[in-house]
Design a protein that fits this description.
The complex is a heterodimer of chains A (81) and B (299). In chain A, a hairpin with a 2-residue loop joins strand 1 and strand 2. With 81 residues, chain A is α+β, with helices and mostly antiparallel strands. Chain A is 26% helix and 30% strand. Chain A is built from two helices and four strands, in the order H-E-E-H-E-E. Chain A starts with 9 loop residues before the first helix and ends with a strand. Chain B has 299 residues and is mainly beta. Helix content of chain B is 11%, strand content 39%. Chain B contains four helices and 19 strands. Chain B has a seven-stranded antiparallel sheet with strand order 6-5-9-10-12-8-7. In chain B, strand 5 (101-104) and strand 6 form a beta hairpin. Classes of the chains: A alpha+beta (81), B mainly beta (299). Strand 4 (77-78) of chain A pairs antiparallel with strand 18 (266-273) of chain B.
């Protein structure tokens, strides 16, 4: 358990979250995406089973100025036919 | 004056059709002579009728002479107005170009020929695509054959190993040396630069051809499934969404070069996506370029 540092950039926040959530099997991606004029930390999960675990990590995320979206998107595949 | 050049197949240009309304020469039965040997016919300067015969089907001079006599008589040609020569059947000019479907000889399916890498020092040309297209997800051997359909076009030269341990990958990249006698279509040299979030891009892939998208992220971390229960984590990847109602990419587009629409710069190497969605992932171009340098392509 730990608390993310205050006053960090969205890039740093994403890196800290990434280190925690990427090991969750149902997490398929994390990145900073633009939604309109806002930069959002997007966490992609393959199905609802990962949402609770991701939320546990997000509960530790104290720097509330950085929005986080959890979306459902499957595991990426290499695009050979 | 009409001009014509020799062409294979049915060239009924000019003199033959105009004056005599004759059917195509090829396949026409001139008293049983070897007319199926005709592989080209046309009119050249000064209304000279030129007929080409397939050297694989013509063995004797008397056959050529007999055909000449019959053609002259049948089409009422003036003396000296007919020329017959014998040569091999022409073959279509094949050339490699970006966007073609290629793959390792043993791969079921295909990926995309993204672009070419030219080693000026060695005067050799290389194809650029993904490891999973040219190197069978690390399972291939250097020197393995690379194909376009059934045509052998080159051999695997180098690839970046995919790491399935959970450590970060940055590249799904491989290059293959092109056979020395292949023709390649190079439209120009591109500059290489980092992609910018929000910029509009395009690609030409073997499945969806040219599509248009927008860079949503330049530091995306994604897990990619490589079959047999294996997955690899990629960091600092481009995440691209389609600008249109269709997906930016589909299976078979792996290896496509992603270019910025503003200046044509090479900004990414397409390698993965989520099926049935518009999410496409690509390696950043600058790490691709740096890998080329590590392999010695710019010494």
């Amino acid at each position: 358990m730990g608390v993310l540092s205050m006053n960090i950039s969205i890039e740093s926040a994403k890196k800290e979250l990434e280190g925690k959530v990427i090991s969750i099997p149902s997490v398929t991606g994390i990145g900073i995406v633009t939604k309109g004029d806002t930069s959002v930390i997007e966490i992609a999960i393959s199905d609802e089973s990962g949402r609770e675990l991701v939320n546990e990590f997000l509960d530790e995320y104290t720097y509330k100025d950085h929005p986080v979206d959890i979306i459902i998107r499957g595991l990426a595949s290499p695009l050979n036919s | 004056m009409k001009r014509s050049v020799m062409s294979d197949g049915y060239d009924s240009h000019g003199f033959i059709c105009e004056c005599l309304h004759a059917p195509h020469l090829s396949g026409h039965n001139f008293d049983g002579h070897y007319t199926d040997a005709v592989i080209g016919a046309g009119l050249i300067a000064h209304r000279l009728v030129h007929v080409a015969l397939d050297s694989a089907k013509v063995q004797w001079q008397y056959q050529v002479n007999a055909l000449a006599n019959n053609l002259t008589r049948h089409f009422r040609l003036a003396a000296g107005q007919l020329r017959i020569h014998v040569r091999p059947l022409a073959v279509a000019q094949f050339q490699l170009e970006a966007g073609m479907s290629i793959g390792h000889n043993s791969m079921n399916g295909y990926g995309t020929l993204g672009g070419f890498l030219i080693n000026k020092k060695q005067e050799r040309h290389f194809i650029v695509s993904n490891n999973h297209v040219l190197a069978l997800n690390n399972a291939a051997t250097i020197g393995d054959a690379i194909h376009y359909g059934n045509r052998h076009i080159g051999s695997l030269s180098a690839f970046v190993n995919l790491d399935y341990s959970g450590r970060a990958n940055h590249l799904d990249l491989a290059v293959a040396r092109i056979d020395s006698d292949e023709n390649i279509a190079i439209s120009g040299y591109r500059k290489i630069r980092p992609a910018r979030v929000g910029e509009f891009v395009t690609k030409t892939g073997a499945t969806t051809q040219q599509t248009y998208g927008q860079i949503i992220s330049t530091d995306y971390t994604c897990k990619v499934g490589y079959g047999a229960g294996r997955s690899a984590v990629f960091t600092d990847q481009l995440y691209i969404k389609s600008q249109t109602g269709t997906n930016f990419s589909e299976p078979g587009d792996s290896g496509s070069f992603i270019s910025a629409r503003s200046d044509g710069a090479f900004v990414g190497l397409l390698f993965a996506g989520e099926n049935n969605s518009s999410a496409t992932f690509a390696n950043q171009a600058v790490p691709v370029f740096n890998q080329f340098k590590k392999w010695g392509f710019y010494q």
